[in-house]
Write a sequence for this structure.
């Protein structure tokens, strides 16, 4: 799964999932199927506000938890690469985890693996509107469920300061 | 080693775009762990599974507040692999052409580069109990 950012003949320029963030590469167009989406996500860190657009319309908007000052949510353009239904819907991640191709720029590892920046639910809704995470974005469980059931993998995610 | 040098060393990168293996933790942290080993160097392996492309058919929420339209709605292209592995070539510095497009062999693998990346000392103090 790649987000396409350009074309050159038989080649596509794409965002890839690799550290450090924001790497791009080229793939052969013949190797992939290209689809189009009008959905996009925009996270305003200063406002703790996530807005999801469908074309020019707002699909939904919600306040969120973002990374602490020492584990900041990285800014830039990313894309969703997977939606994972969580077994423990009442747990810290809520019912769904929407992972991105972005990685923490503050943590080298997380829980023994690469620290992926993800959008997910929460079992601590009282923290919404604060800096409390390790870089992930927590939102109300009903909202992450809506997004998981709506947004395709590849949906662009803009995180702005 | 600077990012530029690493990129130069990886003039031609090969990434196996296999599905990433994510795993989760029920710890209170909000990071998300990606299982290691998602980068594969074997570009000679035959195609495996065929991926299905994703379409956008879900309707907007009924109470979604509309915004004022400002021209055509932006669209974004998504590339889904037809086969299990897709070679990804790094940009050749100073060139808009894909590295390897002239037939030059792909030698360096992104997996090796990725190991170099993860072996880079953290630039920030580790956060105790971050897991």
């Amino acid at each position: 799964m790649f987000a396409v950012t350009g074309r050159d003949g038989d080649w596509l320029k794409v965002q890839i999932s690799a550290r450090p963030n924001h790497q791009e590469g080229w793939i052969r167009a013949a190797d992939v199927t290209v689809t189009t989406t009008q959905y996009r996500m925009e996270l305003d860190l200063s406002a703790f506000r996530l807005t999801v657009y469908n074309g020019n319309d707002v699909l939904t908007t919600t306040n969120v938890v973002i990374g602490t000052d020492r584990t900041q949510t990285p800014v830039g353009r990313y894309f969703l690469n997977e939606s994972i239904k969580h077994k423990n819907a009442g747990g810290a991640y809520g019912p769904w985890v929407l992972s991105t191709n972005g990685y923490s720029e503050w943590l080298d590892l997380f829980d023994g693996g690469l620290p992926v920046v993800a959008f997910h639910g929460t079992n601590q809704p009282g923290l919404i509107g604060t800096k409390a995470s390790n870089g992930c974005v927590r939102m109300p469980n009903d909202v992450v469920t809506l997004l998981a059931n709506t947004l395709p993998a590849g949906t662009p995610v803009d995180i702005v300061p | 080693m600077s990012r530029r040098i690493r990129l130069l060393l990886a003039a031609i990168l090969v990434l196996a775009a296999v599905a990433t293996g994510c795993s989760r933790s029920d710890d209170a942290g909000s990071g998300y762990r990606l299982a290691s080993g998602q980068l594969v160097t074997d570009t000679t392996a035959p195609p495996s599974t065929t991926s299905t492309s994703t379409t956008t058919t879900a309707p907007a929420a009924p109470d979604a507040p509309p915004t004022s339209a400002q021209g055509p709605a932006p669209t974004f292209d998504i590339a889904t692999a037809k086969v299990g592995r897709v070679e990804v070539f790094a940009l050749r510095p100073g060139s808009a052409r894909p590295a390897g497009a002239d037939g030059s062999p792909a030698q360096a693998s992104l997996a090796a580069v990725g190991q170099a990346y993860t072996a880079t000392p953290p630039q920030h103090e580790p956060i105790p109990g971050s897991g």
